[in-house]
Amino acid sequence: MFASGQNSRYVMAQIIFKTKFVNAIYDKSSGKSKYISCFAEEVLFRPIVVTDEYVLGYCNPGELEEYVAENMLDEKNRKTFNELIREDANPVILKYHFK
What we know:
Layout: E1 3-6, E2 10-17, E3 20-27, E4 32-36, E5 49-50, E6 54-59, H1 64-67, H2 75-84, E7 92-97
Antiparallel strand pairs: 1-2, 2-3, 3-4, 5-6, 6-7
């Protein structure tokens, strides 16, 4: 297991399975688990802090394109994204909101 977190409804973990990062999500309310090998956005997901409203993760600027697809972002965040992928700076904190 690489990263994990939970809130009042879900337990989430990023695991390495056969040299590939995948996600396991357990829904406490239904008692069901899901194994997610890839998201529709084709990005990685590293759940470090999980609240009822959002999930926080992180990555290095050089890895940003693996965790965030540019088309997921609004114009303001797209500009920041393009600046960050060019920098060799501190890690980037990612905030994913539940839909």
